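Hey, I was hoping to borrow your eyes for a little while. There's a protein on my desk that I can't quite get my head around. The fold is given in discrete form, as structure tokens running alongside the sequence. I'd be grateful if you could look everything over and explain what you see. Here's the protein in full, and shout if anything looks odd to you:
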Amino acid sequence: MIDIKELVEKFQENRLTNAQIAEIYGVEESTIRNIRLRKRRKKQTKDYEFNSENPTNYGKRRFECETVKLIRQKYENGETITYLSETFGLSRAPMRLLVNHLTYKEC
């Protein structure tokens, strides 16, 4: 059984991700996510405020505009998608979107 108070403390104090907490409790990540989003155990979680920060980083930009411009410049100068992906720690498909101005359009 998951202790909700302890779970909330893990979110707020330790800044652990859903996956890390799921591993601690030996449950699926979706279980923790559903508790956090109050899709499960609503009565038990109603008195707790979950940290509003997104520990999974969904929706957050990985690169600053300066880095995006540098990546695009390197691509225009002949660097391959594979090389850039390995160098900047991004998979090839998202890197392709980045260098082709399909993502980070504002940069």
About this structure: The mean pLDDT is 77. The chain has two domains: 4-45, 65-99.
